[in-house]
Amino acid sequence: MQTTNINFQLISNDLIQLNKNLKKMVSAKHPILFAAAEHLFNAGGKRIRPSIILLISKATIKKYQTISILPEHKRLAEITEIIHTASLVHDDVIDDCEKRRGIETVHNKFTTKVAVLAGDFLFAQSSWYLANLNNIEVVKTISKVITDFAEGEVRQGLIHFDYTISIENYIEKSFYKTASLIAAACQGSAMLNQCDKITQKQLYLYGKHLGLAFQIIDDILDIISSSKTLGKPAGSDLKNGNLTAPIFFALEEKKILYQLINREFQNTHDTKKAVNIIKTTNSIQKAKDLAEEHIQIAQYIIHQLNPTEATKSLLLINNYIINRVH
Q: Which pLDDT score, from 0 to 100, does residue 232 have?
């Protein structure tokens, strides 16, 4: 498995095995659930989250360790990807998305009921495997993420088409939606290597800021990319009332956007019109600058670790995330 613009030679074999293990881990006795889970993982994905976990395990290895990536690290990487995938299934149901990663969403291919059950099943599987890590600190850290996801969805649901919220509110929502899992997984990886508390906290902050940058860039791409590139319809966030950084910055320049938001993009070409208006403003650059601030913090933290091939790869991930917007 390869990720665009990132050389993962250090962990390439581990990622190949991870893809195989994911399908085994989500196998279900009921054929429909199994088909739904298999459909998800056949869609691929960049596997950014598990890659980060595996690289942090290498970056924080102790001199006396004979194995750089422990079996527990590999399992944590798999658990993290299952949790992430479960959240996407529920997201797609809530937002009524037709496509994800270029293929039909689970609720579109099967039914909404099957999709909700598939998401619940994946969360349950991840919890079971998490408990079997037999590391109470890691269990506490990762299990909190599932609560964060739920809180993030509730918060997002309460502020649909609400342009009165601040950028700070937006960042907080983005933490619950995306950054929480990456932060907890980074900390968990450090915990498994028995790193000191300061290093654990620093790597939590690394994951947090990387995750926030990732979400901001995703929100920019929702505006400027084609449906083919996104693997889902462009402007989906706007249409669903999820107001993001580019929109908030664009509102400062183009007051006409308030009218479109107030009528919830109900007219046929409202979404397309809003996207075109946003593109004429400085909002995309301002949003990218915001993402860059978070990436710079993430870069700084990685530079505090002993320089290795693993830390070089982590820095490449940082660059990849910010450079998805050209």
A: 63
24 or 291: which carries more pLDDT confidence? 291
Phi and psi at residue 117, in whole multiples of 5°?
-65, -40
What is the residue-wise DSSP string for 255-266?
A: THHHHHHHTTT-
As to burial, measured by CB atoms within 10 angstroms (0-12 exposed, 13-18 middle, 19+ buried), residue 31 is exposed
Cα separation of 153 and 146, whole Å? 11
**Which among 26-35, 36-45, 142-151 has the top mean pLDDT?**
142-151
> What is the band of 95 on the pLDDT scale with cuts at 50, 70, 90?
confident
pLDDT band at residue 233 using 50, 70 and 90 as cut-offs:
low
Instruction: Give the Cα separation of 121 and 5 in Å (integer).
Output: 33
Q: Which two tokens stand for residue 204?
A: 């939590």
The domains of the chain, with CATH numbers, are 9-322 (1.10.600.10)
Burial code of 164-193, b = ≥16 C-beta within 10 A, e = fewer?
eeeeeebbbbbbbbbbbbbbbbbbbbbbbb
Structure tokens belonging to residue 11: 């962990």
CA distance 65 to 73: 13
User: Is the predicted pLDDT of residue 22 greater than 70, yes or no?
Assistant: yes
Residue of 284, 214, 299 lying closest to 247 (CA atoms): 284
Other beta carbons within 10 angstroms of residue 253's beta carbon come to 14
Q: 279-314: per-residue pLDDT in tens?
A: 999 999 999 999 999 999 999 999 999 999 999 999
Distance separating alpha carbons of residues 282 and 256, to the nearest angstrom: 15
DSSP per position, 65-130? -S-SS-HHHHHHHHHHHHHHHHHHHHHHHHHT-SEETTEE-HHHHS-HHHHHHHHHHHHHHHHHHH
Residue 296 corresponds to which tokens in the numbers above?
A: 């710079």
Q: Which two tokens stand for residue 317?
A: 């991930």
Instruction: Kindly report the pTM of this predicted structure.
Output: 0.91
